[in-house]
């Protein structure tokens, strides 16, 4: 049958999980809204494995999207992937969400800016060329980041919807196929890195940000 990998992508409002074999997604499920991911994700994975007549230990490993994105969704997805890898003894590959988004653009697009809403008028932004990052993920004011987009640059990512830029025609959230492509050639995490893995999130959760703001205003 070839190696079967578990795919988990929970960076957006809805989560997705799937199984991939020989470079192609062979099973997939779309989960409900983020608030239900913790309840639905593990049963969904079990169901797909049973449909393939596989036990969890038969999987080659897990591939998980690590953000930026929905704080709660990412924590659920990463915790599930870590638990799966630990319980089965299989490897875990962590993929930055923007790397997966960059793999979805049309082939002619070489220069890509991936955007996501960071709230309070800010955006996450990272530039890619031919699928490889040109700089580090950063947070910037949306007005600054979007003021002077060079000609020939393709915009991608969930920030397109937030800033009414859907005319770019790009899927705003990564697919399981693009997550699989972005994981190609990536090294699995060692044991210490797997246990230390957290969402790629350059700021605190909404609750943490509100608490910080409230404390500063006193």
How would you summarize what this structure contains?
The protein is of the alpha/beta class and 218 residues long. It has helices at residues 37-51, 71-88, 97-102, 142-145, 159-162, 176-183, 191-196, 206-217; strands at residues 4-9, 14-21, 24-33, 61-65, 92-95, 111-119, 122-129, 132-133, 138-141, 154-156.
Main sheet: which strands, in order across?
3-2-1-4-5
Largest sheet: 5 strands, mixed
Number of helical segments with 4 or more residues: 8
- The total tally of domains equals 2
CATH class of the largest domain: Alpha Beta
Indicate the overall shape. Answer: globular
Average the pLDDT over all residues and give the rounded result: 87
- Low-pLDDT parts are 210-217
Helix % is: 25-40%
What is the number of strand segments? 10
Textual characterization of the structure:
This protein has 218 residues and is of the alpha/beta class. The protein has two domains: 4-97 and 174-204, Nucleotidyltransferase, domain 5 (2-Layer Sandwich), CATH 3.30.420.40; 105-168, Nucleotidyltransferase, domain 5 (2-Layer Sandwich), CATH 3.30.420. The protein has helices spanning 37-51, 71-88, 97-102, 142-145, 159-162, 176-183, 191-196, 206-217; strands spanning 4-9, 14-21, 24-33, 61-65, 92-95, 111-119, 122-129, 132-133, 138-141, 154-156. Strand 4 (61-65), helix 2 and strand 5 (92-95) form a beta-alpha-beta unit. The chain is globular, with a radius of gyration of 18 Å.
Provide the fold topology.
Layout: E1 4-9, E2 14-21, E3 24-33, H1 37-51, E4 61-65, H2 71-88, E5 92-95, H3 97-102, E6 111-119, E7 122-129, E8 132-133, E9 138-141, H4 142-145, E10 154-156, H5 159-162, H6 176-183, H7 191-196, H8 206-217
């Amino acid at each position: 049958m070839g190696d079967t990998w578990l795919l988990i992508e929970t960076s957006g409002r809805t989560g997705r999980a799937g199984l991939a074999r020989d470079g192609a997604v062979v099973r997939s499920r779309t989960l409900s809204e983020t608030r239900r991911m913790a309840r639905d994700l593990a049963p969904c994975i079990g169901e797909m494995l049973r449909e393939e007549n596989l036990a969890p230990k038969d999987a080659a490993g897990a591939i998980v999207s690590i953000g930026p994105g929905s704080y709660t969704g990412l924590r659920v997805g990463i915790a599930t992937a870590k638990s799966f890898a630990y319980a089965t003894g299989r490897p875990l590959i962590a993929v930055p969400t923007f790397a997966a988004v960059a793999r979805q653009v049309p082939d002619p697009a070489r220069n890509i800016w991936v955007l996501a809403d960071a709230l309070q008028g800010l955006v996450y932004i990272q530039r890619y060329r031919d699928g490889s990052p040109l700089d580090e993920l950063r947070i910037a004011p949306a007005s600054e980041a979007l003021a002077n987009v060079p000609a020939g640059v393709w915009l991608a990512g969930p920030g397109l919807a937030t800033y009414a830029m859907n005319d770019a025609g790009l899927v705003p959230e990564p697919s399981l196929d693009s997550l699989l492509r972005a994981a190609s050639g990536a090294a699995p995490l060692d044991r210490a890195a797997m246990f230390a893995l957290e969402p790629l999130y350059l700021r605190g959760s909404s609750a943490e940000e509100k608490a910080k703001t409230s404390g500063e205003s006193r």
